[in-house]
Queue: 3 jobs
Job 1
Amino acid sequence: MEKINMENIIKSFFLGIFMGIVLQFYDRTEVLVSYKVLTILASGSIGFIIGFITEWLTAILPISIANARMYFFINNLIALVVTIFIMAALMMITSSGMEIKQQFMTVLLIVLGIICVANLFDYLMYRRAQNKLKTFKAWIKDK
């Protein structure tokens, strides 16, 4: 439990809220604003659950894959698989019409795309921080 990265779980919550907002623009049905807010908060909660499961599974992985690129790749794969399972479970629980399944695939692709872009951005920020750290160490060493 001590290897679980709580920062990533919190990021997943806010990423879920962001996805809820994006999907509100995709779905143009007329509902009360309070329902839209509840939907956004529910997507944030689902993002939190996905983040927790992803970080828990990532924490179980052996330390031998400590390469940053491999860690981010595996973390992204786990997040995608967990998201697919949770969204498929939600789809089966709520409805089963063919029209809804077609719309579900579009929503699933949007969500998976956002997750991939977010994980790529997280990796790029990690690489940027490592490069800055390397530059700072070299600067300190020269002084």
Job 2
Amino acid sequence: MKTGAKFFITVVSLAILYAWTINYKNDIQKAEWLIGTWENKTQRGSIYETWTKARNNEFSGKSYSIKDKDTIVFEKIRLVQENKKLFYIPTVNNQNGGLPVRFVAKTISENKLVFENPEHDFPQIIAYTKITSDSLIAEISGTKKRTETQTDLPNEKSEKIKT
């Protein structure tokens, strides 16, 4: 093969590789739309979920409410990219002995995240669906007392609360 042809093939191969790496996003990057504070308005008041980027491979989240001037945190969450898998790891006050529970991602896209742990009592599935840049639906579902249960939690982006 002539030197010119080898050079041409090398340049084309490098260009294709470069184009692929520019467009490639690891799974946690696809979840960056979660970052910020989200508000779920209920009859008993608002519940907030705040996400921040802890590291390149980890987001940190927490669920809480505000009563008077007190912040009551009831769940801490880690979203972690490990060994090419994405994990949702909540630690909920007064559940599971205070230990974290791991859910593995089953669906990861630019507007939907679905995490599963079939061994967990409830929920077995936790999902987030981006509706717009300012709204999402959080969903918990699975079997509870031998009955299929699903709870949808509509959330709106909140600029009021930053904790």
Job 3
Amino acid sequence: MHGWSMTDEDFTAGRADDKAPIIADLMKNEKTPFIVVTPTYYPNRSFVTNIWDDDRPLNERFSKVEVTEVLKAIKAKYRVYDSRDHYAFAGFSMGSVTTWDVLENQLDKFRYFQMMASGYDGDMVALRQRLQQSDLSFDATISAGSNDSTIYGARDSARSLQEFKNVRLFTDRGGEHNLPSAMRQLKYGMTYFFK
């Protein structure tokens, strides 16, 4: 999932101002084929504002309503597994906020999560209780660049979830809040998907 003001194509087509690898570059050496979907939480570009907090209701809506529509569309178009063990959700920056929301609201549909460049901004006590009470296992990589101010929230969130054995923190050494760092973080996190 893209970040604030980004588009659904930033991870697949790249951006002219970044020399980041795109998803296809990261998948070159994958032995098992999988489908990557890059939806957007913006209903249209008129929802992009100069205030990133304006995205928060869109993140929540996506995690509660639209993500299930995306899954239905994937299952209608492709022959895919129905088990949550074969689904991952990852996001960068505000897309990471969406990923936290998907962990909170759709644990029955996804097993693997990667939150890049964001800590959890909700009620961590309530999230921990929900995860503790669930019979569903999950795997999460929480990451940020070492030169990205979001590293502090990522570290705090990882510490708060350290009781769960499949939660890890990854720090992209020298990484900033940009696509090159996000792609390195994603490459690391993908090593834990579907294991």
